[in-house]
Amino acid sequence: MTPVSSKLYADDVSLLMVLIDTNPYFWSSMNNNTSFTFSKFLSHVLAFLNSILLLNQMNQVVVIASGYNSCDYVFDSSTSSMQRAECLLEKLEDFVDKDESLSREESVDGVGFSLLSGSLSMALCYIQRVFRSGPLHPQPRILCLHGSPDGPGQYVAVMNSIFSAQRSMVPIDSCAIGSQHSAFLQQASYITGGVYLKPQVSDGLFQYLSTVFATDLHSRGFLQLPRPVGVDFRASCFCHKNTIDMGYICSVCLSIFCKHHKKCSTCGSNFGEARKQDPSASDQRR
Amino acid sequence: MADGGKVVKRAKYKSSVKVPGVPGVLKMTRERFYFMPNDPTLTTKLNVEFKLIKGHKFSKEGSSKQALLNLTQDQGGNYLFEFDSFPDRDQCRDFVASAIAACGEVGKATSEKPAVPHDEQLSATEMGRRIKLLQENSELQKLHRQLVIGGTLSEAEFWAARKKLLEQTENKKPKQRVALKNDMWSVKPLSDGQTNRVTFNLTPEVIHQIFAEKPAVRQAYLNFVPGKMSEKEFWTKYSRAEYLHSTKNIVAAFAEASEDEELAVFLKQDAMLASEARKKIRRVDPTLDMEADEGDDYMHLPDHGLPQVETKEILEPQYEPFKRSFSQYLNQHAAVVLRGRVIDVELGDTRSVAEAFTRTNQAELANDVSDENAYRERINKVTRVAEIEDLQGPRDPPVALLSIKDPRDYFDSQQANAMKALGDAETGIRQLKFSVSKEEAFCSLKDSISEINSQGLIEPIISPEVALKVFNGLSQNISSTKYHLGKNPHESVLDQLPSATKNELLLHWTSIQELLKHFWSSYPITTKYFYTKVTRLKDAMSQIYPKLQEMKESVQSDMRHQVSLLVQPMLQALDAAFAHYDADVQKRSAKSGERPNGFV
Ligand SMILES: [Zn+2]
Ligand SMILES: [Zn+2]
After folding, report:
1. CA separation, residue A64 to residues A55, A70, A146, A246, B166 (Å)
2. Origin, by domain of life (chain A) (predicted)?
3. Which ipTM value was assigned to this complex?
4. Which of B71, B326, B452, B557 has a Cα-to-Cα distance from B137 of 20 to 30 A?
C-alpha cells in the first residue's frame, strides 16, 4: 500500500479558496430588506464547504473573510485542528472584533465596500505558495461570495489581481449574493474562465453553490455550467463618461479620451501633437 | 688659459706624492689629456683618452700644501699631477669631471664617471647620484653638456642649484632600519639549579619588544613607575607573572593575583589587546566569510596544527581572565614583528619608549575615529554584495513613478456599460438609502455568528421546493441556450420510450450513478479496504456495460437514436472509470516493482 503521506493528487482534487463578504453594513441592509440574513448565509456556506471536503478526501478548503477594514484567513482545512467548516466561526468572531476595532468612522453612508482587492490578493498569495510546494498539488480555484457594491477605489488593485489570476490560470468563480450585480466579479470570472452567477432565489444559495460551484475544474470539461450573457466591455471616456467605440488612450496610464488632449488628466503625461495625415499615430482603440 | 674646448696648465707629473715630479705642461681637451715635460729629452710624455679614466681624487685646500689631482685609470694605475696653485688645480679638476661625464654620456660603456664640485672631496655615492640623474634625465643631460662641458658653468655651480634633485634621489634609498627580532622573548627563566633564584635577562631591546606586544604592561609601567614602585620592582613583578605563566598553573596564578592587584595586571588577559582585536575584526572585509573559508580548507587542523598547549580541563569562570592562549600570543608577536619599528626613540630610556608607544597608539585611535567614511563604505559594500535580488527595485533605466490622480476614473469608464448589460442599471447606480451605526452593524454581524455557533446550522438548510426551483431555473437557463428536444420543453425524451425500456434505463442510470459515486470517492487508494472496494465496484460496472450495449441494439430503429443519446453519456462515464482503474493499477505495480525486495 502506498503511504498516505505521499501526495496523490488526481486532476479532480481541488483547493478551493472561498472569499466571504463580512461587510457589516451590507449585512445590516440585507437584514432590513430581505429575509436572507448573515446566519442563513453562514449555514449555507458551511454546509457547502463541508460537502466540498467530503467530495474528495484530498480536497482542501481555505476561507478568507473580506471585512470592511481588513481581511484575514479564517479557515484552512489542511490544519489538523480544523476538520469541519464550523471551526471557522470562532476565528470569524475574532476577525469581526478586530475589523471593528480598526474602524474609524462611526457610521457609513450607504453600505460601503468590503475589501475584495485585499482578500483576492491573499487568496492568490496562498495559491502561489501551494504552486511552489512541489510538482503535485491540488487544482486551485477561487470562489467569491460577494454582496457589497464594487469599490471604485479598489479598481486598479482588483484588476491587477484578476490579471494575475489569469496568468496563473486560476479561475475566479463568483456568486453575487446581494441585490446588485457586480461588474468586478463579472469581469473577474469572464477573464479567468470562471463562472459568474447571481442567484435569483437567495434562500436557495446552497443549491446554487453545490450545483454550480462545487464542480472541480476537471469535471467542468464535461458539464454545462451557466454561461455569461455576454458582457459589454465597451469603455466610456474619462472626460464625458460617454460610451465610445474609438478614442484616444494615454500610453502611460491607459486613460481613455474621446478627443485629443494636450495632457493626460489622469497621470499628467504630455501628449505630442497627433500627425494629421496619420491618425493611427496616436494610440487608438478598437 | 681655458676656453670651452681645452685647458692648459703648468703641472708636475709625479709617480707618488712624496717624489718631486717632472715639471711640464698639462693640456686637456674633451676627449683626452696630454702631458709634455719641460725637458723634451724625458720620455714621460702622456697622451691618454678620458674614456680610460675611471675617476679622480684631489687634495683639500688647506689640509695639504700640495695642490694635487689624481686621475685613476680604468685598468688600475693612476696619473698624479701637482699644480702650482689650487685655483689651477680646481680648473683642471672641473674640466676633468665634465670630460669624464661627457665620455660616459657618449660611450655609456663606462658607467661610473666622477665629477667634482668645489673644494670638497666628492664621495663616490655623490658622484654616482649625479651621473644617475644625468642618465635618467635627458634634458638635464643636454643642459649639462651645453653649460658645464661647454664651460658656461662649473660642475659645482650646476649642481648647487639642483640640491633638491640630489636629495630626492637620496631619499629614494632610505636608510636600512633594523627590524624587530623575530624570536619571542624567551619565557624560560634561567635557573641556577642550586637555589630557588630565577633570573630573567631584560635588555632595552627586550623591553621594547614587551612594550610593543603587550600594551597593558606598557600602560602599567606608565601608571606605576616611578610613583608606586621603582623600575626594578616593576620588572621583578612582571618577571614573577611571566614565571607563573610559564608554570601553566592557573590556579596558583589566580591565588597570587587575588592577593596582589599589581601582579594581577600582568596575569590577566590584556584588555587593550582584546579591544584592538575586536576593532581589527570589524575592519575585515565584511563580505569575507571566514567560517566558510575554513570549511574549504580540508587540510585544516584544529588550532592551526599547534601542539595543544592550553589546559584542556574546564576552567571555573573565576580563572577565565587568567587563561592565555599560545596562538593568541603567537599572532600578536607576528603582528608586531611585521609592523616593524613604529617608534623612533633611543632605546634604553624605558619611560620614553613607553610614552612613544602610547603616542603612536593614540594617533591611530584618532585615525579610527575619523574613519566614519570608511565605515559607511563598508556598510554600503555589505548591502551591495549581500542584497536580496528579489527585493531590489530595477536599477536602470530610471523610471518615473506612475502617478494616477484618481483610480475611480477607470472604474467609471468600465462599469457603467457592464452594469447596463447585466440589466440592472438602475439598481447599480442607485445609492442605497441606508444608514446604520458602526456598533449596530458589527453587533448584528457578531450576533449572527454566535447564533450559528450556539444553535448549529439552520435545519433544513434548504427546502425541497426551493431546491427544485433553483434546479429548474439553472437547467432552464442552461438548456435554453443549447437544446430544444421535442415540441414541448416540459416533455421529456424518456416519456416517448416504451415503459419497459424507460424503466430499464432509469434503473441502470441510478445504479451506475451509485457505483460511480462509490468508485470515485475511493480514490486515492490509501488503505487495503479501498483497494478491494474499488475492485468490487469495477466488476459490478463491467457487468452493466454489455447490458447497456444490448439495450441500445434491442430497441426499435426509430427510437435507437434517442436511446443511444441517453446511453452514450452512461457508457462514457463507465469508460472513464475503467480507464482510471487501469491506470491506477499500472502505476501501483510499477511502483511496487521499484521497491527493494521484501517491501510490502
Ligand atoms: Zn469625452
Ligand atoms: Zn495618462
Report:
1. 21, 11, 12, 40, 87
2. Eukaryota
3. 0.82
4. B71
CA dist., res. A169 & res. A127, Å (int): 11
Closest residue in B to A10 (Cα–Cα): B524
Q: Which of A2, A227, A267 sits opposite B402 (nearest CB)?
A: A267
Which residue in B451, B356, B500 sits closest to A86, CA to CA?
Answer: B451
Which pLDDT score is estimated for A20? 96
Give, to the nearest 10 degrees, the angle between helix B438-455 and helix A24-33.
80
Ligand sitting nearest the alpha carbon of A243: 1
State the fold for domain A10-222.
Rossmann fold (3.40.50)
B221 class by beta-carbon count within 10 Å (0-12 exposed, 13-18 middle, 19+ buried): buried
CATH class of A233-286: alpha beta
Q: Which of A232, B105, B121, B211 is nearest to B113 (CA)?
A: B105
Measure A252 CA to ligand 2 centroid, in angstroms.
5
Q: Which three cell numbers stand for residue A46?
A: 458551511
CA distances from A280 to A97, A243, A274, A283 (A): 55, 20, 9, 6
Beta pairing, strands A60-66 & A14-21:
parallel
- What residue spans define the domains of chain A? 10-222, 233-286
Which residue is associated with the grid cell 453575487?
A176
Considering only CA atoms, which of A223, A3, A92 is closest in space to residue B600?
Answer: A3
Interface size, chain A vs chain B, as Cβ–Cβ contacts under 8 Å? 236
pLDDT by residue (tens digit) across A211-261? 999 998 888 888 878 876 666 667 788 888 888 888 888 888 888 888 888
CB contact under 8 A, A108 and B432: no
- Chain B residue with Cα closest to A206: B462
Contacts of B532 in chain A (CB under 8 A): none
Q: How far apart are CA A281 and CA B17, in angstroms?
A: 108
Q: What are phi and psi of A139, to 5 degrees?
A: -80, 115
Residues in contact with B275: Cβ distance below 8 Å, sequence separation at least 6, in sequence order: none
Shortest Cα distance, chain B CAs vs residue A279, angstroms: 23
Helices (H), B340-371: 350-369
Asked whether residue B110 carries a pLDDT value surpassing 50, the answer given is no
Mutate: best of A26, A180, A222, partner B, most B CBs <10 A: A180
Residue of A nearest to B444 (CA): A28
Q: What number does CATH give the domain B6-110? A: 2.30.29.30
Q: Give Cα separations from A129 to A73, A103, A116, A133, B470 (angstroms).
A: 14, 31, 20, 6, 36
A46/B431 touch (CB, cutoff 8 Å), yes or no: no
Best-predicted range by mean pLDDT (B230-234, B264-268, B295-299, B445-449)? B445-449
pLDDT of A144 above 90? yes
